Amino acid sequence: MEARPLDALNRSRDKKVLVELKNGRQYLGTLRAFDIHINVVLDDAEERHEGQVKRKIGTTFIRGDTIILISPAQ
Fold first, then answer.
1. Alpha carbon of 14 to those of 9, 18, 20, 41, 66: distances in Å?
2. 5-69 CATH, one of 3.40.50.2000, 3.30.420.10, 3.40.225.10, 2.30.30.100
3. Are 18 and 73 in contact (CB under 8 A)?
């Protein structure tokens, strides 16, 4: 069976992911939820800049149309 993009996201649910936005900001957090528009909810999220924690945010909602990349955290 072919994997679809939402299947890949579903496998990342409850795991740490890195989300990069069009404005260059990066967020690291635990993926809790997403929808067909790739709107995502992250728990224990932190904003990162050049690999360093800039600020801790907690639970946050990110609009799908601002996202350019979602990747499993290293």
1. 10, 13, 18, 11, 21
2. 2.30.30.100
3. yes
CB 60 within 8 A of CB 17: no
pLDDT in tens, 18-69: 999 999 999 999 999 999 999 999 999 999 988 789 999 999 999 999 999 9
pTM, entire model: 0.89
The overall longest dimension of the chain from CA atoms, in Å, is 41
- Rg of the chain, C-alpha, whole Å: 12
Which token pair is 59? 């639970």
